[in-house]
Amino acid sequence: MVQINFWAILVAALVPLIMGFIWYNPKVFGIVWMKEAGLTEEKMQGGNMGFVFVFAFILSLFVAFFLQMVTIHQYGAMGMMGGDEMNAKPSYFAFMKDYGMAYRSFGHGALHSFIMGIFFVFPLTAINAMFERKSWKYTFINTAYWTLTITIMGGIVCGWYAIDGFNLVTPK
Q: Where are the transmembrane segments (predicted)?
C-alpha cells in the first residue's frame, strides 16, 4: 500500500516560501515583478505578513499533498480500486509486487511536476493574467516561479518515500 509521507509533504511545503524569498527578491525578479503586478513598496508594506506566510504555508501543504497524486503512479493503482486494498483483486497485488516502488525517484517526480508546470500552471496563469490585463512578462515570471517550485516539490514528494527514524530510505 502507498502511504502518505507527511515529512516529505512538510518539507516540500517549505519550498514555495524559500523559492519565493529568492525569486521575488529585488536582486532577482522582485523589482520587475512589482512593476508588472502594479505594486509599490508602500503597498507591499501593508497587510499582516505573519498571516500571509502562515496561510501560504498551509496552501503549500495542499499543493504538496496533491503532487503525490501527480508524481506517484502507485496512487493511480490504488485509485482504480477505490483506495481500499480489501476490494482489490489478485491482479492488484501481483502488480504491486512487480512494480510496487517503481519510478519513485526525485527525477521522476520532478519531471512530472515540470510537465504539470508547462501544461497546467502556464495556462492557468496566462488566462488570469490576460483577464487582469497583466503583461506577458508578469505571466512568465510567475509561471517560471511556480514551474520551478513544483518541480522541486514533486521531486521531494516522489523521491522521499519513507523515513526510518531520521534516516532517509529510498527504493532499491
A: 6-25, 46-70, 110-131, 143-163
Residue 54 lies in a domain: yes
Which helix (H) or strand (E) segment holds residue 96: the answer is helix 90-99
Number of domains in the chain: 1
The model's pTM? 0.87
Q: Give the whole-angstrom CA distance, residue 32 versus residue 25.
A: 10
Residue closest to 156 by CA, chosen among 113, 122, 115: 113
Q: Look at residue 129 and tell me if it is in a domain.
A: yes
Asked whether the predicted pLDDT for residue 164 surpasses 60, the reply is no
In 3-state terms, what secondary structure has residue 61? helix
The residue range of the domain holding 163 is 6-169
Residue 1 lies in a domain: no
Residue 13 in domain: yes
Q: Dump pLDDT digits (tens) for 46-105.
A: 788 999 999 999 999 999 999 999 998 877 777 777 777 788 888 888 888 887 778 888
Question: CB of 81 within 8 A of CB of 110?
Answer: no
What's the one-letter identity of residue 147?
A: T
- Grid look-up 498571516 returns 51
